[in-house]
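Repro case for the chain-ordering regression, as requested:
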Amino acid sequence: MNGWTTEEVKESPEILEMLADLLFQLADDDFVLGYRDQEWLGLAPHIEEDVAFGSIAQEQIGHATFYYHLLESLGVGRADDLASLRPGEQRRNAVLLEQPNGENGDFLNQPHFDWAWTIVRHYLYDVWDIARLNLLKESRFVPLAEAAEKILGEKRYHRAHQELWIRTMAKHDTLSRQKLQKALGEAFGWVGDLVSFGRFQGRLEEHGVITSVEPAVRRYWVEVQDFLRSEGLIVPEVSSVMNGRLGEHTDALGEALARLSEVYRLDPSASW
Amino acid sequence: MAHLDFDVYEVFAQPDSMSPHVHVFNVLASSPDMALALAEENFFRRESYTNLWVVRRDHIHQLGFKDRDGFQKTVKSYRTTDDYKYLRDKWRYYREHPMRPGGGEASERVDD
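-- result from build under test --
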């Protein structure tokens, strides 16, 4: 199959529609998790970790920015508006990623965040995102295939970081181990829609925008299970409460969007 | 906190494969792996390098103050290359006068 350029995609409304839906999934995943990550700023377990995790947050937002600009180049809208002004029902991120960092998820008011949950959620995302980017490297949409290669480099560090923390918490003591196991139970309750590609999945595969999804998903679960079991953790059942890829979301997303766009909404035409 | 088993790790970085590892800073971490991960993300975000070492600070041993007096040497100019500069002139003389025994300013000084 011959590769598609931005101009070619813009000429076909049908192709543009399915490609934009995929790009929104990629952008919104990185964006909302990047937002959750940066809520930890100044609160991470110690100063070195604060810098390391802050930098992971920055990279998440950087990857989202790239996808929003790709959408802008396809004529979908201004990148900043796409990131800040789209309402929840238009968002395509997986619901796991929009969940707060702990039961008391307000970083301005007694943020009793949960580090084990944060790391477990991020780990599940990073391993999947690496699998997904490896598929996208072969994408028919050339700008996406080229970007996937570059983004993969940073994702590998993210993944190594989360695995290291899981290993550390799994062997440290009973309490850290219990917290990890509890976080896994909660994360697996949300994770179902993460590995899906929304309502255009079939067509995206037919057109070669993304291929071999099924085997990649199978390999993903084997990889995750093998790693968690090797750390002596019990792997819970995967379930799915709602499908973020179809625009279904929890209240947590609405709250996050209201806060992250608070300043932007004051004057969307302002030059930053 | 019940116990915090953190240690200071000294970080050494190698900018390229032909250069030695150079001490750059230290990090507080719970294991060598964590020290490596944190060093990378804290200090090498913008610079490139080919390798990193981390060493627990209490695994580094240094001389006591008294022992350092041994570093103060008496002058032994024959241990430095500067002391053999005259050889260059001597070699030049022999190249220029292959058949003549002795000669050259420096060698004359030595021979005489």
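Ordering looks correct now. Chain A touches chain B through 14 residues (CB under 8 Å).
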